[in-house]
Amino acid sequence: MDSDVLIDWYRETARDLPWRRPGVTAWQILMSEIMLQQTPVVRVEPIWREWVARWPVPSAMAAAAPGEVLRAWGKLGYPRRALRLHECARVLATEHGDEVPDDVDVLLGLPGIGAYTARAVACFAYGQRVPVVDTNVRRVVARAVHGRAEAGNPSSRDLAETEALLPIRIDRAATFSAALMELGATVCTARTPSCDGCPLPSCAWVTAGRPVSEVVRRVQKYEGTDRQARGRLLDVLRAASGPVEQVALDLAWTHDPGQRTRALDSLLVDGLIEQTPNGLFALAGEG
């Protein structure tokens, strides 16, 4: 894969995303990476801007109640991410001088920080030469290098293969990683790749005649799921100015009382909500 071509393309055509601009801190990049997991850029950007203004450093978020952070998370989905980020902010404020570490192994020890996020922060915030592998990167490598339509299940080979593609020069490696992700997000997309707009001079998948994927895609439904039920219950608590009675939650999900009970229990177990001594319900830290 020609890294020079890809880097030149990225510098000319990359989306102007706010977390890519000069002056953005490692903490602000960390927030963006957590928000962008399984959530489109268009939904993340306005919330991220609000959070940067509201909690510009970890200690600012750490001083807020967990429920306040959950309320600000809004409709980004998977709200456990918000709770874990709040926990991470507390650790950064108390144990790391209000700074995000630049070492991958140290980052992995923080609450809610997995392998991808740790490497993304080290790469994009600190310019380190580390492979950053997400779904888009795996798809580009599968097509351009191996001639497969899909990457298949993640494996331990993904990091090594991606690292082998990185430019030797550290100052170009981070840009290449961003370019690889951008290519997968905007051109080499899963369903309708724009091969005519691809900057790569060669692609094994195109050369092979763009063979059809053997992977059977399962459409994940949302309507009527436990996840939707959890979201409805959280909506009630986010909109409330204080703890609410059980009946308010009952009215938020009426067609399956058993599912509602299951969703409520899971929210309590996850620590997203709490029950007060007098039986009311509230967001975490607001009971």
Automatic annotation (TrEMBL):
Pfam entry (one): HHH
Family: Belongs to the Nth/MutY family.
GO molecular function terms listed in the Swiss-Prot or TrEMBL record: 4 iron, 4 sulfur cluster binding; 8-oxo-7,8-dihydroguanine DNA N-glycosylase activity; adenine/guanine mispair binding; metal ion binding; oxidized purine DNA binding; purine-specific mismatch base pair DNA N-glycosylase activity
Keyword DNA repair carried by entry: yes
Catalysed conversion reaction: Hydrolyzes free adenine bases from 7,8-dihydro-8-oxoguanine:adenine mismatched double-stranded DNA, leaving an apurinic site
Database matches in InterPro entries: DNA_glycosylase (IPR011257), HhH-GPD_domain (IPR003265), HhH_base_excis_C (IPR023170), HhH_motif (IPR000445), MIG/MutY (IPR044298)
Species whose genome carries this gene: Nocardia aurantia
Protein name, entry field: Adenine DNA glycosylase
UniProt keyword terms in alphabetical order: 4Fe-4S, DNA damage, DNA repair, Glycosidase, Hydrolase, Iron, Iron-sulfur, Metal-binding
Gene Ontology BP term (one): base-excision repair
SUPFAM superfamilies, A to Z: DNA-glycosylase (SSF48150)
Domain called HhH-GPD: residue spans: 35-186
Enzyme Commission code: 3.2.2.31
PANTHER family xref list: ADENINE DNA GLYCOSYLASE (PTHR42944)
Cofactor list: [4Fe-4S] cluster
